[in-house]
Every structure is written in C-alpha cells, then in structure tokens.
Fold Glycosyltransferase.
Amino acid sequence: MKKAARVVFIPSPGVGHLVPTIEFAKLLINHDERLWISVLVMDTTSAAYTESLASQRLQFINLPESPSKSEPAMTSLLEQQKPHVKQAVSNLISDDSAPALAAFVVDMFCTTMIDVAKDLKVPSLVFFTSGLAFLGLMLHLHTLREQDKTHFRESQTHLLIPSFANPVPPTALPSLVLDKDWDPIFLAYGAGLKKADAIIVNSFQELESRAVSSFSSHAIYPVGPMLNPNPKSHFQDDNDRDILDWLDSQPPSSVVFLCFGSKGSFGEDQVREIARALQDSGLRFLWSLRKPPPSDSSFMAMPSDYLPSDFVEILPPGFLDRTAGIGKVIGWAPQAQILAHPATGGFVSHCGWNSTLESIYFGVPIATWPLYAEQQTNAFLLVRELNMAVEIALDYRVQFMAGPNTLLSADKIQNGIRNLMDMDLDTKKRVKEMSEKSRTTSLEGGCSHSYLGRLIDYIMNQV
C-alpha cells in the first residue's frame, strides 16, 4: 500500500478560524494524494457548511459541546475538550488499515492541544491565521515580557520589532499585550506558540518579505493566501442576489464598500457619523450595517442583522431617500463576492487578516478602520510598512466591556473615503502588483508553492 499520512486539524470555534483552516486542509489534500485530514470541530453551528465539504480524505468530527449552559471562557472550553480530542484521535488510529497519524495542526488559540500531540508522540504545528509581521511582534513581545521588560505598555514608547522596518507605536499593538488584565492569557499564548515544532502562516513571502527574513529560531511555513479564489456564497440567497444585481448596475470601480467583519458593529452615534460622511461625499456606496449585541453580552457574542424597518430608526432622517440613487445599506454581506465584483473600487475595512488577504487578492484598495484583536497592527502594516492603504484611523480601538476609545467624526471618515477613491497612482500600482503576486505565489515557482512542498515533505517524514 502506498504510504499515507493522517493530519489532525483543531481550529478554534468561530467561522473566522474555521474557513481558513478548511481552505488550508483542501490545499493540502489537493496537492498530495497521500494526505488524509481529520478536522475536529468544537463549534457545531457550522455543521451544515462542513458536511457539504466532507470527502473520503477530508473528514469532520464534531466534538461534544460544553455541558455548561453559560458560555465558558475559551481556556476552560479548550481544557474541557482535551479528553474529547484525545478520544477522537485514539478512535482514528485504532484502525490498523487507516493512514498513520503524522501530526497535529492546531489553531493559534488552541496551543494547549499540543499537550495531546505530545502524549501521542507526534509533532504539532500551529496554524497561524494572522500575518507574519504580527507573529514576529507577538513572539518578540512575549520574550520581553518573560524578561520582565514591560516598557511596551508605556504610551510614548515606539518599539523596534525585527519583523517590522519602522518603529511600532503602542497604538498599533493589540489590547492583549497592552492591558495588564490580559497578562496571563498573553503569557500562555506566547508560550504556546513557542512550544510548537513549526508555525504555518496564512501569508506569503512576496507580501511580507521583511518579516520572513526576521525569523531565525522558529521554523515557519508561509503558505498563504488561504482563501476561496472563486467566491460563491455557501448560503447564497435572494438577499445576496439582490446585492450583486445592484452592483451589476454600477460603473466599474465606482463603489466604496464598508464592512467590518463578523464581529464588527457600531453604536448609533457612530452610525450617524458614517451616514453623514457617505451622504456628503456623494460617492456610490455599499454599507454592511450590523446590529451590536446587547451590552451585557459575553465576549463571544456576535452582531446580528437589523430588520429593514430598523434602518429608518438608526440612520439620520431622510438618509435612505437622499442616497437612494447612489447607495445601498445592507446587513450581512457576501464579502468575497463583493470584493471580486468589478464595480467595487474601495474597501473600508476593520483590517481583519482574512479581509486583508481577500482585498489584496481581488486588488481592492483599503481604507483602514481597525476595531479589536490584531487589527491595529494590520492597519499599521498596510499603511506605514507596505504603503498599500490609506487610513480613516489607525488607533481606533474597541475595548471589551468599555466600548470604543473615540468617536470618529463625519469629516474624518469622509476625508478617508475620498482619499481611498482618489488614491494616488503609485499606491494603486502597488496594490495591483501585490494582487498579481498573491495569485501566483501558490503556483509552481511561487514562494508559497515552495513552502507547501517543504511542509508536506516534513509531514510525510513523520510516518
């Protein structure tokens, strides 16, 4: 029998981590027929999506849900799941005719599962769903913190980070490292990354060459961008069709698209400022406007869609009528399809890494408006390091429980949107060139193709 290897994937709960994990799994099995992948899913809300993708060499195993009715913290959830993970993998390897277990690939927030891999005597690789520069930042800051050097929390200190060419201001750091209350999580997170045998990164060398050259003590495999290159909504419905039909009627590169990710939403004061900016700009727009979760919700609570009648209540009086000819306000957005549409000319984005990669791939310039997590770092990378984006803001931040740190004015938003749609030719050229590189890096001769081959060699050498 031809040698075969099984790789166990453990993504974090949430679609933002599941989708790139599945794209990576598909990339591996399409690249080498010796690989079999089992994805252990903790979040069964995506069951319909995962079931539609299952095949002989790509299987999904739904782990038991937490018995607690209240939503457990991520660390507690992962500890509860450890025995279930070990049992599921033991069941997989008990079949002597099945492919041999070669490695674990664990999400960047699931590094506690490395303990299970060690028990089973297989290597563990972290799947890092953010960029290379951010990975370098977190490893460097963790080393400083281990040495009790916490000057990076001082408001005026700009940091020299090996994965960045420019000094990084504290406003570009994630809350995880700035807030002392998060210190235990930050220490555990950094230690988890350093425990891995290697780190697979959803980025590509052509985009982050500076960061790639900065890694010396960690084995990295930048094999991105991992996204669906032929975007078709998995849940396409009449609403999606209506959005795409509207875009079909707009001139090429004329529409500014505003979308803030699966967790992005704003209070009514900020919504009114955005509305005023859009109206006064006179530009064509497509705005994904989501309803914030209740203020007493947990950290994991997600925005929902407004009813169409709610828009009249939260938007300025007459806004919808005055912009009816040039704009459209929607709820959830089929983002990749919109970015791929020829009418889309600019993207006001929270700078989540998936969204950043999609915008680069489809060659749509970004105006940055980061909200949380590592988005301030991504915005700094795009604007200051790569010179591929314009800013609406770089230092806007939504704190857990405390809310946003500022209210962005309509004038500031409008200025950013105008700069986006009137972007200078040099920046447009950089965006276009990087779009082309993001499409060729995974082809033969590209950097990601080369790293993927090396990664598969590493996996196959384990069996």
In short: The chain has two domains: 5-129+196-224+441-460, 238-438.
